[in-house]
Amino acid sequence: MVYLLFLILTFYKTEAQTYFPPISGNTWDTVAPASLGWCLDSLNSVYNYLGQKNTKAFIVLKDGKIALEKYYGTFTKDSVWYWASAGKTLIGFSTGMAQEQGYLKISDTTSKYLGNGWTSLSPAQEKAITIRHQLTMTTGLDEGVSNSDCTDPACLQYKAAPGTRWAYHNAPFTLMHKVLDNATGNFTLFFTTKLRNKIGMGGIWLKSAGSDTFNIVYYSTPRGMARFGLLLLNKGIWNSDTLLHDTAYMRQMTTTSQSLNLSYGYLTWLNGKSNYMVPQSQLVFPTSLVPNAPADMFCALGKNDQKIYVVPSANMVVIRMGNDAGFPALAVSAFDNELWGKLKDIFCIPTNSIHHISSSNISIYPNPANDVINIITPYNYTASLHNITGQLLATYNIKKGTNNINTQQLQTGTYYITLCNEQENKTFRFVKQ
Asked: Does residue 221 belong to any structural domain of this protein?
């Protein structure tokens, strides 16, 4: 058992060494997918699927290096495209930096930065709205007005008390740009010097169609988007440069921020929760956001299927830019789950015999697990532990009865244990939390 623990510790020490591309230039190290043990027989079919779904750019980073990169039509690594609402997560991260540097507090009332009368609410109702409510989509302002993008006071009407109702409402988010601009003195300069240039992301904020007031849509190259994904994966640290020291804020940004929509953090979408809500609806769906994807994945998602998927358990970032993939929606769409259903084939995730907790006379618990999982079986097995990409982490001799496996050193995420003997081969999925 000590030897097995050593194997796990050694693996994670190696995996933790993330590569960062140089700040300037086009140099970016690559890694051969075959060296990762991926199932490349299905790669062309996935590329074809992405092409059929109006994709312009697709990138997969593994440990910071480019493992997959594909462009379609005339689009290249130097082409520029819009992020749509995936840029909301940029604002979420920027707000954390602004708070850390003393420009604002997310507990501040929004009126402190926009002045009184920025809504049509009563003074008391308006004062109750804070920056945190803007970050969590819980301002209580009515998204059902004729133009939910309108930021004029007449368009910002009372629907519910702040913090009591979740609704994906663009107007309060749009005003976050003005909040940050007034708080920092010049948001564009703050963003450019404190974030964009620090990671070599490139790109620019531009006005959305019909807007004469705010530069609210971000444009960059696909690799620029991948750089931000890599920054998120590394918890706000770029190589040796810590852009966001506030680990509590980073954790809050990428975990459930309120009890209304468990799959939403600070302008960031979260997978692996027991339910989720979507834009333009008050329905609560009793399942995770992207069931085919790893439970620990969090995302920046934009209209017409602009995607940044961050998977800490696999040390992976997945980028998709393009036109509408055929599932019209704001931010979240059925494309997310369909795409990850195909990506599982590349990453060699077993699907045919997966059992969440138990199968006939075999039990694995608790699930999710913290420091240990228990395996109860009437037979002897050889067991292998794999991460979400199919890489082997360790092997065990499982004896008849109760067996305990230490999971303390595993990172948060989804894992698979395969039990084999001469009679059967079964794979079980569990989540380390």
From this structure: yes
Q: Please give the span between the terminal C-alpha atoms of the chain, in angstroms, as a whole number.
A: 22
- Residue that terminates a domain, selected from 325, 346, 367: 346
Instruction: Give CA angle at 405 (402, 409), nearest 5°.
Output: 165
Verify that 388 and 286 share a domain, yes or no. no
Task: State the DSSP H helix or E strand holding residue 372, giving kind and residue range, or none if neither.
Answer: strand 372-377
253 residue type, one letter: M
Residue 362, phi then psi, degrees to nearest 5: -115, 135
What pLDDT sits at residue 349? 54
| Residue where a domain stops, chosen among 293, 311, 346 | 346
Residue 34 lies in a domain: no
Q: What is the CATH number of the domain that holds 208?
A: 3.40.710.10
Q: Give tens-digit pLDDT for 146-196.
A: 999 999 999 999 999 999 999 999 999 999 999 999 999 999 999 999 999
Is residue 358 pLDDT above 60, yes or no?
Answer: no
Spatial CA neighbour of 31 closest among 242, 317, 344 = 317
Would you call 274 exposed, middle or buried from its count of C-beta atoms within 10 A (0-12, 13-18, 19+)? exposed
Helix, strand, or coil (residue 71):
strand
Tally of domains within the chain: 2
Handedness of CA 86, 326, 261, 154 (dihedral sign): positive
H-run or E-run covering 114: helix 111-114
Please give the Cα distance from 28 to 43 (Å, whole number): 22
Q: Domain of residue 287: give its range.
A: 81-346
